[in-house]
């Protein structure tokens, strides 16, 4: 009860005040210190060449570079996509959208016109350095045309999308509360059904869950839909908990 009250007050204030330092920036870090396995070295080379990421490698932190490699690697491996004129993509729960480069580079390769939206309900959550999520996201989005960060509730999104990416959705109340959201926004079934309704015919939704309990809860939400799931490896970035990938195709 008290945690929900505190989260509700803090969340309300964040959305009203929008406090943040401006012009977030990260210094490039030397990637020669990276220690990759032989398999990862070969895979990194392939990804850089295929998605033209050399300039990004030379202008990023080690952590952000590896996290984006992780995302673009799994998209490249598991999401079959054909060339087309226009793609519309939605990322749900974008946080500070540290992985937007991976999504943009992947989808842009397969279309002439990319419209990539990221929606985040808690966009004004403040970090210890006094930058909020939105301000940090602006830095990661810099130079990426057709990319739009939306500080809003997913329920207010009503466009149609060819692909939806959802990394670590809140399907358990514990993580939802831990990250400071009021209980009234914990609507896993309603949010999932709304997200699915945004998919175009034959569109696909990519979901990444953390841990077996969260994954099993996600499977219950996906019951009756056409999907495939697998346990992800830890190539490029070593996460503390196991991660599971699910790809849903709308029929």
Number of domains: 1
**CATH architecture name:** 3-Layer(aba) Sandwich
* Adjacency order of strands in the biggest sheet: 3-2-1-4-5-7-6
Strand percentage, roughly? Answer: 15-25%
Please state the average pLDDT score. 96
Helical run tally: 9
At the fourth CATH level, what is the homologous superfamily? Vaccinia Virus protein VP39
The N- to C-terminal Cα distance equals 42 Å
Structural class: alpha/beta
C-alpha geometry: globular
Number of strands: 7
- Per CATH, what is the topology? Rossmann fold
The helical percent reads: 25-40%
The major β-sheet equals: 7 strands, mixed
Radius of gyration: 18 Å
Name the poorly predicted regions: none
Kindly describe this structure.
It is built from nine helices and seven strands, in the order H-H-H-H-E-H-E-H-E-E-H-H-E-H-E-E. Helix 4 (62-78) runs parallel beside helix 5. It has a single domain (2-249), classed as Rossmann fold (3-Layer(aba) Sandwich). With 251 residues, it is of the alpha/beta class. Helix 6 links the parallel strand 2 and strand 3 (147-150). The N and C termini lie far apart (42 Å). A seven-stranded mixed β-sheet has the order 3-2-1-4-5-7-6.
């Amino acid at each position: 009860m008290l945690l929900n009250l505190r989260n509700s007050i803090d969340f309300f204030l964040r959305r009203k005040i929008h406090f943040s330092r401006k012009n977030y920036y990260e210094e490039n870090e030397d990637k020669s210190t990276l220690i990759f396995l032989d398999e990862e070295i070969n895979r990194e080379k392939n990804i850089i060449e295929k998605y033209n990421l050399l300039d990004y490698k030379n202008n990023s932190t080690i952590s952000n570079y590896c996290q984006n490699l992780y995302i673009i690697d799994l998209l490249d491996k598991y999401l079959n996509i054909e060339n087309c004129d226009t793609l519309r993509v939605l990322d749900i729960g974008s946080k500070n959208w540290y992985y937007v480069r991976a999504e943009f580079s992947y989808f842009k390769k397969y279309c002439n016109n990319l419209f990539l939206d990221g929606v985040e309900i808690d966009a004004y959550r403040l970090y210890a350095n006094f930058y909020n999520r939105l301000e940090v996201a602006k830095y990661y989005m810099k130079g990426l045309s057709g990319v739009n960060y939306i500080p809003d509730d997913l329920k207010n999104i009503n466009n149609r999308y060819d692909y939806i990416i959802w990394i670590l959705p809140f399907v358990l109340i514990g993580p939802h509360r831990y990250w400071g959201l009021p209980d009234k926004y914990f609507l896993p079934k309603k949010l999932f059904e709304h997200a699915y309704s945004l998919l175009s015919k034959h569109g696909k939704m990519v979901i990444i869950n953390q841990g077996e309990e969260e994954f099993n809860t996600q499977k219950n939400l996906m019951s009756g839909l056409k999907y495939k799931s697998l346990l992800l490896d830890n190539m490029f970035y070593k996460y503390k908990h196991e991660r599971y990938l699910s790809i849903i195709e709308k029929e």
